[in-house]
């Protein structure tokens, strides 16, 4: 099996940006966020979600930095269970670090 | 906070009490296995229940009530098929920003996920068509969820909320020590005064401005403020389907409805404008046509209570997240009085060159003539509901509406079957105002079972059924854009609607047999209670002008023949 390609192959060369959401932690909040992306035909390349304190979770979304980004952020902000949306600064490479992990051959995990 | 007595009560009776505390006096719905505890509690409450014959009918009755009162209204359904039947009415409310709350019964919590009898994931299914939805997991949660649902439905841009309540949550008994405050709309966001100043400057400097107003203006109660702006600064006013009624038809600045079935002059005037002042609109494709060619020379001011609408379709030069009324109140002192003689004479010139044609306007047996005759006989105190199709567009084109919100129509979703139940809801919520329901045979058949509800509730609804024996707007598109390949758009079997209505116990007349259609309408309207007026449309006639789907608004088909009678506009 080939090892992880050091140059991640994005569909095109669109730069990616990481959004950080603070959300109410309850069953269904993931559906609200993912459902919004699919029905508005926004692309989402990656998603990470963990509880951070009782009742609250943090979500990281990896999304293309295209001309629809502002609209995406506005729509996500409107969701009732999304308490805040912030754009993570340049250099936040959490997804890149994880990418190597995800690309390991199954038997090595 | 009001103290409860502290005695145990069921989730169902808590739910009913919370609805009463919200001021709900009437709900529509249908009982079934999973919401029987709720109905048991409802039976002993002061809330009037309207039993419909289909849950979609209940949803549209709630919409009719909400559109007329402007406050959130409630409807009920059981789990499974009852819940899935609500979805079209909910989706319709989402697109037209109508505050309704759907309360569905759900199978008991321990059975969720087991494919139990009449179990569907209505929470998951309603996600994309609600403003927000809840699956209530404990009886205690009802005390938070119900006021929150009302707050969400009424705040900002109104919309539908669904609350799914498992049967065990309805049945469980808990003590309520404190009742929550009823949920109310949030205050409006703070105004961006800098943007408003900029907007005022753009209006003052524009040479050829047009106001483009929609449902947001009606809902905000800002129609008269919009008129003040139009008159002070001499700005002609185009309306979307949802905005109709904001400006009287005979007003010199009225341009009527824009877009796919708007008048030729309306779309031509918009093409020439240099400033588009867009209030409470969302640049819907039926209004804008091909969006790249919509108002190509115009700067855009866009005001909407929903920030998600700004820059969604068309990027605004000035975008303001605000209630239309608050925006106008802040803007007006900065707007200079202008005569704009040059622009208004150009507008008058385009109106004269490309007037709106209403063939048959004086013949009450032709579509336009019938609508105008019915309007004359109904008088000004009326709410007008329509279904979806040719009759809807003709009503939008010519009905002499006099106030905002007077027209109840399915704008965004275009739901055939909307008209009758929405009309019933409007009539029940405002019993002093009769409702004219303009419908077509295709649309009426989609919720015809609610004739029984109308009779049972003695709703003052006059159904004007324009029967062309098929799906007129489909046939029109097949004729114009599919080589006249008419397929599946005609009913080869004729239904006797007068007999059907009478079978439901409703008064019915047939204009085909009336020697004087006007007098027959007058008599039908004068009799209290529901009535069906059957009006056969003998010759299929297309609605013109028409912008082909996907084309620019300037590429209209039809509506320019000089042999027909021009309308007052």
Summarize the SSE layout with pairings.
The complex is a heterodimer of chains A (109) and B (569).
Chain A: E1 16-24, H1 29-39, E2 46-53, E3 56-64, H2 69-78, E4 82-87, H3 94-102
Antiparallel strand pairs in A: 1-3, 1-4, 2-3
Chain B: E1 2-3, E2 8-10, H1 11-21, E3 26-29, H2 36-43, E4 48-51, H3 55-69, E5 73-77, H4 81-84, H5 87-95, E6 100-106, H6 122-126, E7 132-135, H7 142-154, E8 161-166, H8 167-171, E9 173-175, E10 178-179, H9 193-205, E11 209-213, H10 215-220, H11 223-233, E12 237-239, E13 254-257, H12 264-272, E14 275-279, H13 285-288, E15 299-304, E16 318-321, H14 324-331, H15 341-353, H16 367-378, E17 383-386, H17 390-398, E18 407-408, H18 419-429, E19 435-440, H19 441-446, H20 450-457, E20 461-467, H21 472-481, H22 497-503, E21 507-510, H23 517-526, E22 531-536
Parallel strand pairs in B: 3-4, 3-5, 5-6, 6-8, 7-8, 11-12, 11-14, 12-13, 14-15, 15-16, 17-18, 17-19, 19-20, 20-22, 21-22
Antiparallel strand pairs in B: 1-10, 2-9
CATH class of the domain at 16-88 in chain A: Alpha Beta
DSSP summary: helix tally of chain B: 23
Mean pLDDT across every amino acid position of chain A: 83
Average predicted confidence as pLDDT of chain B: 96
Largest interface: A-B, 14 and 14 residues
Give the class of chain B from helix and strand content and strand pairing.
alpha/beta
Instruction: Give Rg of chain B in angstroms.
Output: 24 Å
Strand ordering within the main sheet of chain A: 2-3-1-4
Helix content of chain B: 25-40%
Helix content of chain A: 25-40%
Indicate the structural class of chain A.
alpha+beta
Main sheet record of chain A: 4 strands, antiparallel
The top level CATH class name of the largest domain in chain B = Alpha Beta
| Quaternary class | heterodimer
Which fold name fills CATH's third level, the topology of the largest domain in chain B?
Rossmann fold
Shape of chain A: globular
Q: Estimate what percentage of residues of chain A fall within beta strands.
A: 25-35%
Please identify, by name, the CATH architecture of the domain at 16-88 in chain A: 2-Layer Sandwich
Task: List SSEs of chain A in N-to-C order.
Answer: EHEEHEH
Name the CATH architecture of the largest domain in chain B: 3-Layer(aba) Sandwich
Which consecutive residue ranges of chain B, at least 5 long each, have pLDDT under 50? 563-569
């Amino acid at each position: 099996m080939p090892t992880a390609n050091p140059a991640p192959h994005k569909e095109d060369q669109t730069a990616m940006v990481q959004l950080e959401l603070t959300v109410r932690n309850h069953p269904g909040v993931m559906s609200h966020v993912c459902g919004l992306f699919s029905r508005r035909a926004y692309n989402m390349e990656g998603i990470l979600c963990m509880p951070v304190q009782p009742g609250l979770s943090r979500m990281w979304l990896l999304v293309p930095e295209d001309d629809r980004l502002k609209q995406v952020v506005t729509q996500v902000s409107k969701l009732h269970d999304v308490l805040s949306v912030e754009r993570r600064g340049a250099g936040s490479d959490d997804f890149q670090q994880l990418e190597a992990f995800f690309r390991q051959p199954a038997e090595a995990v | 906070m009001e103290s409860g007595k502290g005695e145990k009560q069921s989730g169902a009776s808590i739910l009913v009490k919370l609805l009463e505390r919200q001021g709900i006096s009437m709900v529509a719905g249908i009982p079934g296995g999973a919401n029987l505890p709720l109905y048991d509690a409802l039976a002993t409450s002061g809330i009037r229940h309207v039993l419909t014959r289909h849950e979609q009918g209940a949803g549209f009755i709630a919409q009719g009530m909400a559109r007329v009162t402007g406050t959130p209204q409630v409807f009920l359904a059981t789990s499974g098929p009852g819940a899935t039947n609500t979805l079209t009415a909910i989706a319709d409310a989402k697109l037209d920003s109508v505050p309704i709350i759907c309360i569905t019964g759900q199978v008991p919590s321990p059975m969720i996920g087991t494919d139990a009898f009449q179990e569907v994931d209505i929470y998951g299914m309603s996600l994309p068509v609600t403003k927000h939805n809840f699956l209530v997991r404990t009886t205690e949660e009802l005390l938070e969820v119900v006021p929150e649902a009302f707050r969400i439905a009424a705040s900002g841009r109104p919309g539908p909320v669904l609350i799914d309540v498992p049967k065990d949550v309805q049945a469980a008994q808990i003590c309520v020590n404190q009742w929550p405050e009823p949920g109310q709309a949030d205050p409006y966001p703070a105004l961006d005064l800098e943007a408003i100043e900029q907007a005022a400057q753009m209006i003052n400097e524009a040479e050829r401005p047009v106001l483009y107003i929609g449902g947001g203006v009606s809902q905000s109660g800002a129609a008269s403020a919009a008129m003040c702006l139009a008159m002070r600064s001499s700005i002609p006013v185009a309306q979307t389907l949802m905005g109709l009624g904001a400006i009287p038809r005979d007003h010199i600045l009225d341009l009527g409805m824009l877009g796919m079935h708007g008048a030729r002059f309306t779309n031509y005037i918009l093409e020439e404008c240099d400033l588009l002042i867009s209030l409470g609109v969302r640049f819907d494709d039926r209004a804008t046509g091909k969006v790249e060619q919509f108002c190509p020379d115009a700067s855009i001011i866009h005001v909407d209570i929903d920030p998600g609408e700004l820059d969604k379709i068309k990027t605004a030069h000035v975008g303001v997240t605000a209630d239309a009324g608050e925006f106008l109140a802040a803007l007006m002192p900065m707007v200079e009085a202008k005569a704009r003689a040059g622009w208004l004479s150009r507008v008058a010139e385009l109106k004269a060159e490309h007037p709106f044609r209403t063939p048959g306007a004086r013949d009450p047996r032709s579509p336009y003539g019938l609508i105008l005759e019915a309007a004359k006989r109904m008088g000004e105190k009326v709410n007008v509901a329509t279904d979806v199709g040719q009759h809807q567009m003709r009503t939008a084109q010519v009905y002499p509406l006099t106030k905002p919100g007077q027209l109840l129509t399915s704008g965004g979703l275009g739901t055939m079957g909307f008209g009758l139940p929405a009309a019933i809801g409007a009539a029940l919520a405002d019993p002093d105002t009769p409702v004219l329901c303009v419908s077509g045979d295709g649309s009426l058949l989609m919720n015809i079972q609610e004739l029984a509800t109308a009779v049972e509730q003695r709703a003052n609804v006059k159904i004007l059924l324009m029967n062309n024996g098929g799906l007129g707007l489909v046939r029109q598109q097949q004729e114009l854009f599919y080589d006249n390949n008419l397929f599946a758009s005609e009913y080869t079997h004729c239904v006797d609607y007068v007999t059907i209505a009478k079978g439901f116990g409703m008064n019915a007349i047939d204009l085909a047999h009336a020697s004087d259609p006007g007098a027959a309408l007058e008599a039908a309207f004068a009799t209290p209670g529901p009535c069906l007026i059957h009006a056969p449309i003998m010759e299929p006639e297309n609605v013109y002008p028409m912008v082909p789907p996907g084309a620019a608004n300037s590429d209209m088909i039809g509506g320019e023949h000089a042999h027909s009678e021009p309308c007052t506009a």
